[in-house]
Amino acid sequence: MRAAVIPASDAPPVCREHPDPAPRHGDELVVEVLAAGLHHLTRAKANGSHYSSDGVYPLVPGVDGVVRDEEGNLRYVVLDDTPLGTFAERTLIDPRRSVILPDGIDPVRIAAAMNPAMSSWVALRRRVDFHAGRRVLVLGATGNAGRMAIQIAKLFGAAQVIAAGRDTTRLRTLTALGADETITFDQIGRAADVDVVIDYVWGEPAAGAMIPMLTARADRAAPLTWIQIGSIAGPTAPIPSAALRSARLQIVGSGIGSVPARDFLAELPELASAVAAGAIDVRARAVPLARVAEAWTAETDDRVVLVP
User: Fold this and answer.
1) What is the rounded average pLDDT of the residues 30-49?
2) Half-sphere exposure in the Cβ direction for 21 (13 Å, CA)
3) CATH class for domain 118-253?
4) Does the model's pTM come out above 0.85?
5) Lowest CB count within 10 Å: 47, 84, 109, 195, which one?
6) Domain segments of the chain: what residues?
7) What is the Cβ-side half-sphere exposure of residue 147, based on CA atoms within 13 angstroms?
């Protein structure tokens, strides 16, 4: 079979022949891969920069995807740590880490949406006590995951969603997705009275936003939960000590480890149904597996999805 193979952490993937997968125990299934998203997580795990990377090479990347099992069922699957990912014509799955999809779905759409949408969906469902009427700020709202976070917060009943980013042109498009207000980072004080921050940025920008937000709050004793999900601006943030003392601020993380695998899996059916029903806008671009090296470094607003 053909697969994308990464020989070392600093090497790009190469599409080449690879041994067919064989089940190692009775719970595993050999499945045909129909579509697999190229996510930030996929790249980070492949180059060893993600905290969950095991540093074993060579490897076939791909953390999730839409597959067809031997009985003809379409499944969305999330893989455990494995050197054989979904960037291949076939792979191995544990069916307990998958959800059967309805007939007529678009595999590319599902593969593009599930990973970025899962970040905010699981954060709001499993890491905080979120209920209708809450006010939400999305930091890094112009990326794929941030755009979906706006829609998911609204889907969960948020009374107000403020979208923050640097690109004013992209920000203007977010009101169509449900953002009640769009701001740049130098306007962050306008989001002072939100209840929840969904942060895909971290680094210096997130740390720099905290004091202006907290000092502008009408009631500093009102709880503010800051959910750290992504770190596109840097893996560390110099948080001022005053941010933790001057207001009722709680910082939590949401990701692999802080959320048990069983909780991620429990959310998959409802999320897949929402994506399939069109409740979440999805930007997807299908790319043949043979062009994986080109796609790996491509800059695009769409979520790249590799297909056989």
Assistant:
1) 89
2) 25
3) alpha beta
4) yes
5) 47
6) 2-101+278-307, 118-253
7) 22
